Amino acid sequence: MRRAIGQATSPAVPAVSIICIYLNGERFLGEAIDSVLAQDRGDWELLLVDDGSTDRSAALARFYAADDRRIRCLAHPGGGNRGMSAARNLGLAHAQAPWIAFIDADDRWRPGKLEAQLAIVEAEPRIALLAGTVNYWGSWEGRADVLTPTGHRHDCLVPPPEAALALYPLGAAGAPCPSDVLVRRDALAEVGGFEDQFTGSFEDCAAFGKIFATLPVWFSSEVWLDYRIHADSSVAGMIGGGHYPARRRFFLRWYRDWLRRNDVPVVARAVRRRLVRDRLRPATYRHTAIGRLALWLRGILRR
Description:
Elements: E1 16-22, H1 29-37, E2 44-50, H2 57-67, E3 71-75, H3 84-94, E4 99-102, E5 108-109, H4 113-123, E6 129-137, E7 146-148, E8 157-158, H5 162-166, E9 182-184, H6 185-191, H7 203-214, E10 217-228, H8 234-240, H9 244-261, H10 265-280, H11 289-302
Parallel strand pairs: 1-2, 1-4, 2-3, 6-10
Antiparallel strand pairs: 4-9, 5-10, 6-7, 6-9, 8-10
Helix pairs in contact: 7-9, 9-10
């Protein structure tokens, strides 16, 4: 853990609001914050959102906030646990910048992440959401790393609803990790932000899937994120506990209904077909990037 140096000056309107949600994240939270502090761009604010922690992670968050005016600590009323979507929405409610980034408490940004992403969106102002190739990071404890591209076409503007059809779970291309995403705040507001009923899985698919279906996006070939693979992550818990197929079905039914209400029939029909195929022949997901990653992670958990 590196202590922030001095009292950094907070810009009147930062370029990026960074939302970091955590629940008992003491083990890795300091490294995530340090990777934000190490960015070349300093015109950001960092919102540390406690989702009901019982360890010392909230104290660690306050430690960083005391040394840097750009960092603020947030929590639900009464200090309760309301789930990942509600925690992200709490951060959004306090965000001031036109662009939103996320970093989960167990991930790490690579140097230059913000500068590179902001250069792309400044050059192409139609972008609503930007994500890059992700390093699924096993080498932090001696295992192999796996580079996984996000999206089906790279370094170009993708019009809606193309990405919704091409990316997991409707297509074979990899979906973005929240910690890698840069998204316009007004785009998230336009689609209603995160969905509170998704408390611990598919909360990113619900929010970003609404954007993929309705707004233009960009998938970069650059690598900006180390996504930490470990047995205590929410994804590992879902896969290891055998909950993945049921939660996927719940998401797909919700997404189908949202698409119908918002008049995106071509994607709604694709979701309906996917639900029928999954019911007739339960998916193994081996043909998808996320499926291969899930099988790899399951093997690690078993070992």
